[in-house]
Amino acid sequence: MPVETDEQDGSGKVLILVVERDPHIKKLERFFLEQAGFRVEFADDGVHGLERARLLIPHLLITEILLPGIDGLSVCRSLKSDPSTKDIPVLIFSILSAEARAREAGADAFLLKPLDDARLIDAVVKMLGDRTEVSE
């Protein structure tokens, strides 16, 4: 099965995979990230998040810690231990005050909820560096 990338979909946009269980947070994240020019895909739980990350190879993965199936810290550890996904930057975005645990799991950044659009977009842009050149 071929790996889908931003180039293959023709949009030229940076792909962000979000693993989030809360439908309200997902809706807001989609809105804020798409308004900032990113392409956004979602997974509802850790198992599907890992599957989607391995299939899509996103430019960035954002995950909550409290997920059904496999928690977000385990998702991060699995991605970082797999040679095919180890370079995907991971942002842990959680209601839990667990920055040290997120860093131990290999996360590249941590944001504490509640969702703040400016903080989220700033963190994403900072993590992506030069890859934030998106088409409109």
Task: Describe the structure concisely for a colleague.
The protein has 136 residues and is of the alpha/beta class. It has helices at residues 6-9, 23-35, 46-56, 72-81, 99-104, 117-128, and strands at residues 15-19, 39-43, 60-63, 90-94, 109-112. The longest helix has 13 residues, at 23-35.
Tell me about this structure.
The chain is α/β, with parallel strands linked by helices and 136 residues long. It is built from six helices and five strands. The chain has helices at 6-9, 23-35, 46-56, 72-81, 99-104, 117-128; strands at 15-19, 39-43, 60-63, 90-94, 109-112. The radius of gyration is 14 Å and the shape is globular. 33% of the residues are buried.
Structural descriptors:
41% helix, five-stranded parallel β-sheet, 17% strand, alpha/beta, Rossmann fold, 6 helices, 136 residues, 5 strands
Task: Write the topology of this structure.
Layout: H1 6-9, E1 15-19, H2 23-35, E2 39-43, H3 46-56, E3 60-63, H4 72-81, E4 90-94, H5 99-104, E5 109-112, H6 117-128
Parallel strand pairs: 1-2, 1-3, 3-4, 4-5
Helix pairs in contact: 3-4
Assign the CATH architecture: 3-Layer(aba) Sandwich
Strand arrangement in the largest pleated sheet: 2-1-3-4-5
Biggest sheet descriptor: 5 strands, parallel
Tell me the series of helices and strands, N- to C-terminal.
HEHEHEHEHEH
By CATH, the superfamily comes out as Response regulator
Q: In DSSP terms, counting alpha (H) and pi (I) runs of 4 or more, how many helices?
A: 6
The total strand number stands at: 5
Which fold does the CATH topology refer to?
Rossmann fold
Q: What is the general shape? A: globular
List the domain count as a whole number.
1
